Amino acid sequence: MLVELAVRNLGVIESARIPFEPGLIALTGETGAGKTMLIEALSLLAGQKADPSRVRVGAEEAVVEGLFADGESEWVLRRVVPVKGRSKAYLNGELATAATLAEVATDLLEMHGQHAQQKLFSSRAHRDALDEFGGIDTSRLDAIRSDLRTIEADLSALGGDERARAREIGLLEFQLDEIDSAEVRVGEDSQLEAEEDLLAGAQSHLEAAAVALAGLRDDGAAIDAVSSAISALRGRSPYLEIVERLANLDAELSDVADSLRSISEAIEPDPERLDAVQQRRNRLLELRRKYGETDQAVLDFAEDTRSRLNELTSHDERVRELTARRVGLEAEYLTEARKVGDARRGVAGELARRIEEQLRFLAMPAASMVIDVRDSSSGDGGAGDEGDVDSPTGDGADVEFLISTNPGVAPGPLGRVASGGELSRVMLALRLVLSESPPTTVFDEIDAGIGGEAAVEVGKLLAQLSVGRQVLVVTHLPQVAAFADVQVRIEKSLVDGVAETRAAPLDHTQRLVELSRMISGQPDSESARLHAEELLEIAAAKRRKLAS
Q1: Strand 73-82 vs strand 61-70: parallel, antiparallel, or unpaired?
Q2: Burial, 152: exposed, middle or buried (Cβ in 10 Å; 0-12, 13-18, 19+)?
Q3: DSSP code, position 55
Q4: pLDDT tens, 354-391?
Q5: In a domain, 462, yes or no
Q6: pTM > 0.90: yes or no
Q7: Going by DSSP bridges, is the β-strand pair 470-474/73-82 parallel, antiparallel, or unpaired?
Q8: What number of other Cβ atoms are within 10 A of residue 141's Cβ?
Q9: Structural domains of the chain, count
């Protein structure tokens, strides 16, 4: 449900903030007052393409915000339309695309205006409406279709070109042989790097050890010097601690010298081994360059390659398996499609009759509806997602609403036969027949070209539709406005020579004045006021009857 709408600098609206309640809400006002701008504001929130020329003269940008609520959930939709540059969309304060806004708005808001009847032109929308009316369950058909798409994708991935498959098998075998023959082990390169460092510097390592051992072991070197110092100080009480420390140092130096000799004796220059280590490291480096940044990545690539190779080498068997499964699913699809198609054809006439019945109350007494249900062509479908696979005939997936608004004229497509106002009435009739709709529905001038008792009937049907939901209607007819739970007056005035529109809900007294203006063009007319009171009483009585 639309809780609040805020509009700034859009067309003649400088600033407007309108709270909305559940039920039927009538938007009224003089022609040109700005009612259309409110509809355009809602259209922007529904993702409609932004028109910079609609920004109020003198302003840099137009801003539209709407707060919607459904149960405990709330959404804030916002559009900013600058004079120059791209428009921006926001969802709950976060940047979003207009397409995202449109997707969210689809479940919150349904627009039916003079130029917003695209849904009525869609074969898919017609099919969905027919399925909803007839309670037709297409879940099994959808599941089979999904499985068929998966099989087609799997068959395509296997490859149908024998030569291409042979080339791919040759490449995969080469790659796998190259990796397997290398016997890659995770962490091996780190070990080889340490060995390469040892072998590459073997001679210099030995020379460095010899120099160090001479400094430790030669006559007069470090160990001898420490021993001499111990001999000079031993037995002298002031140096007992020093002697102990020197003794520890002497032991440590001897241990270091022994370790150094042991390590150096293990080092042996080996040019052949060095060359083998360097070649091995180069081979591992080349494998990582081709197949992955690490040894583990190379091994993972090998496993993936092995799996793909197994698929290709068992191609014929896999193709037979998938083909057999596809044949079985296609047979099941045919059975299910015929069941769904028969159900669609079975309820089409009743839905058409029910829509015709409602249209007679909406000042279209001569309207004749036909719901044409055709089977999708194999591999074509012509009905959106129901024709994405080779679908057997019998599914009734091509659904089209046809209408004739005049006696003796053959029914034709809605978009070519019905006017904007008639399209809105067709949508109202459809909404009255169907059970599901978004929480908020907007009708723009649904009452175009009607009056008298027909206008009263339109108001009653709108009130009926608004039970348990929210319906906004832009209307010039007092008979329709009288049925509203809330009436909002859109009024334009001149402020410092600039047109400005304001919108505000009316209390009972103000509503009588507005209805009087709509009846006679004279807000202060006493007779019009009496007529307005009568209209409100009639509407209230009819609403009470609806509620009972």
Answers
A1: antiparallel
A2: middle
A3: B
A4: 999 888 877 788 889 999 999 875 444 333 455 444 54
A5: yes
A6: no
A7: unpaired
A8: 22
A9: 2
